[in-house]
């Protein structure tokens, strides 16, 4: 069906069908649940952080292909990274989603941060309703990080 | 094509928005359970009122204000007849149906319910008929009981007498906004009364589609919204039995709802003004009156007959074309269901489904439909919902089915 190729890229559908890092980590792992109140989608993020580095991440919950694939790609991208790099990655991703920073300013892409496969989610910006889906896992990740 | 008394082509012509084309094709609007489109007569009546007759109501002596008051109160009379209320002042205009239900919970509930008092709800209620009661649970420790559902999404009434035993309130929907199930309202009101409980009916999904008779039902309160029945948003209706409304304290305080205000207190106005504090949505109420005339002109029985036909066709078509790949939640017997269908299709998430259907101009709602307890019961986080109304025809069902095929292509089934 024409028009939706930008949204439903093959890499996105692949992560939707085979989400990476699914599961949970036992307490007291930092853990957060994010809800999209509009649609009932839910994402859970569990972290294992050692020496300021995310050594493991698990993702649970349920939702549409965009929310689930975004969270799946996110989990791959942040696993093994120092928290500072993870935060830079979140910022870069939000910038790609046209989400302004806390002061309402557009986030300029940081050339030091690469998104890799996650660039495939760029097409979501054309469908503003779906930005909330793409960003759900990332906001949940930030909430989990606050518990570290 | 349909064979009922409604002339579908002529009806569609009366809805300007349905004439709109997107990407060279007409819109197939299947989200009327959410909100309905508006016929020209409603739009034109509101425009004419704003151009020629707009003025404050109930408080000025000049001719124009009198005209505006007549238009506003005239709409109340139309609504009274539409739902067969005994007295015109049993019709209270609110902001929406949610406010109407909150009015009852807040005013009647806080006056009459104490710790341990039981309110019975059902598993298929909209949040608007759940959360106000939850608020009373938190505030004063009332107890909620829930009528369960059968496997096909109807109320399971086998334990109703026990659930109602000792209850003060039974508040239930006349038609589920998710499942399309129509409940036996008259029987439920009688059961409530037999147990000494009030019967409160959420008529949001029922009133736009069926003949409504609050007296035949025996309802104590009934709430519905204008925007789902071809009228404008911004106005809802609370029907309440006169004796109950009379005995209740006001909900919101302010202008219009008082008889007198002194330094040491106030006295309330008579019904219905007692419950209409502040300037009401005057133009919207007038628009609702036009919507009532529009629907009455077509005949609510004819609309129901048409929707039974659509529902039968949808059930048949979708089942024949997709078999086990599609799940249609709710009853399959169209004598106990309306034309609202929540569906699950080939494991495709409702959001994705809705997005893909939109490529074919098919507008369906994806989400939890403000019924999260029911979603949990169904074991889903969301559904896609196609809801049909008087301006939809069987061609729209076919377009929906074709668009579902397109979704399969993208998601690789």
UniProtKB/TrEMBL annotation, chain A:
GO biological process: iron-sulfur cluster assembly
A GO MF label: iron-sulfur cluster binding
UniProt domain NIF system FeS cluster assembly NifU N-terminal: residue ranges: 8-133
Cross-referenced Gene3D superfamilies: 3.90.1010.10
One Pfam assignment: NifU_N
Entry-linked InterPro entries: NIF_FeS_clus_asmbl_NifU_N
NCBIfam families: SUF_scaf_2
Matches recorded under PANTHER family: IRON-SULFUR CLUSTER ASSEMBLY ENZYME NIFU HOMOLOG (PTHR10093)
Protein name: Unannotated protein
From TrEMBL, chain B:
Biological processes annotated in GO: cysteine metabolic process
EC numbers on record: 2.8.1.7
Cofactor(s) essential for the protein: pyridoxal 5'-phosphate
Enzyme class, first EC level, given as a word: transferase
Catalyzed reaction equations: (sulfur carrier)-H + L-cysteine = (sulfur carrier)-SH + L-alanine
Keywords from the named record: Pyridoxal phosphate, Transferase
Domain Aminotransferase class V per the UniProt entry, residue ranges: 28-400
InterPro entries: Aminotrans_V_dom (IPR000192), Cys_dSase_SufS (IPR010970), PyrdxlP-dep_Trfase (IPR015424), PyrdxlP-dep_Trfase_major (IPR015421), PyrdxlP-dep_Trfase_small (IPR015422)
Gene Ontology molecular functions: cysteine desulfurase activity; pyridoxal phosphate binding
NCBIfam families: sufS (TIGR01979)
Protein name: cysteine desulfurase
Organism: freshwater metagenome
């Amino acid at each position: 069906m024409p028009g939706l190729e930008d949204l439903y890229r093959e890499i996105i559908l692949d992560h939707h069908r085979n989400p990476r890092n699914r599961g949970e980590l036992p307490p007291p792992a930092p853990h957060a649940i994010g809800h999209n109140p509009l649609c009932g989608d839910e994402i859970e993020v569990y972290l294992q952080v050692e020496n300021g580095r995310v050594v493991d991440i698990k993702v649970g919950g349920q939702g549409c292909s965009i929310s689930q694939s975004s969270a799946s790609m996110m989990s791959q991208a942040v696993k093994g990274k120092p928290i500072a790099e993870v935060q830079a990655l979140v910022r870069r991703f939000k910038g790609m989603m046209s989400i302004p920073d806390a002061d309402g300013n557009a986030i300029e892409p940081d050339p030091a941060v690469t998104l890799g496969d996650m660039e495939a989610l760029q097409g979501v910006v054309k469908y503003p309703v779906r930005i909330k889906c793409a960003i759900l896992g990332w906001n949940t990740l930030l909430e989990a990080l606050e518990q570290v | 094509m349909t064979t009922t008394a409604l002339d579908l082509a002529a009806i569609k012509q009366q809805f300007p928005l349905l004439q709109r084309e997107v990407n060279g094709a007409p819109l197939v609007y299947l989200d009327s359970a959410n909100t309905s489109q508006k016929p020209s007569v409603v739009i034109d009546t509101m425009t004419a009122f704003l151009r020629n007759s707009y003025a404050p109501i109930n408080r000025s002596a000049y001719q124009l204000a009198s005209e505006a008051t007549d238009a506003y109160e005239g709409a109340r009379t139309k609504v009274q007849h539409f739902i067969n209320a005994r007295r015109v002042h049993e019709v209270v205009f609110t902001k929406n149906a949610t406010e109407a239900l909150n009015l009852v919970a807040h005013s009647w509930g806080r006056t009459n319910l104490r710790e341990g008092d039981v309110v019975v709800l059902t598993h298929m209620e909209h949040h608007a008929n759940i959360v106000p009661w939850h608020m009373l649970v938190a505030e004063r420790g009332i107890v909620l009981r829930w009528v369960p559902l059968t496997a096909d999404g109807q109320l399971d009434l086998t334990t109703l007498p026990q659930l109602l035993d000792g209850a003060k309130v039974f508040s239930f929907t006349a038609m589920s906004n998710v499942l399309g199930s129509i409940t036996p309202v008259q029987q439920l009101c009688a059961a409530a009364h037999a147990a000494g409980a009030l019967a409160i009916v959420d008529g949001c999904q029922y009133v736009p589609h069926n003949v409504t008779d609050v007296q035949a039902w025996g309802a104590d309160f009934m709430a519905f919204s204008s925007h789902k029945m071809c009228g404008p948003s911004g106005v809802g209706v609370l029907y309440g039995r006169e004796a109950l409304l009379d005995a209740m304290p006001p909900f919101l305080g302010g202008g219009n709802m008082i008889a007198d205000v002194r330094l040491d207190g106030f006295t309330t106005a008579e019904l219905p003004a007692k419950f209409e504090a502040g300037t009401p949505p005057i133009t919207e109420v007038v628009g609702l009156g036009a919507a009532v005339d529009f629907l009455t002109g077509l005949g609510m029985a004819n609309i129901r007959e048409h929707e039974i036909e659509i529902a039968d066709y949808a059930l048949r078509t979708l089942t024949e074309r997709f078999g086990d790949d599609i799940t249609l939640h709710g009853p399959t017997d169209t004598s106990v269901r309306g034309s609202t269908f929540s569906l699950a299709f080939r494991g495709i998430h409702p959001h994705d489904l809705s997005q893909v259907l939109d490529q074919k101009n098919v507008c369906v709602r994806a989400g939890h439909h403000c019924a999260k307890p029911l979603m949990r019961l169904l074991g889903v986080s969301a559904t896609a919902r196609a809801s049909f109304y008087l301006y939809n025809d069987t061609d729209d069902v076919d377009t929906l089915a074709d668009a579902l095929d397109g979704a399969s292509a993208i998601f690789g089934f």
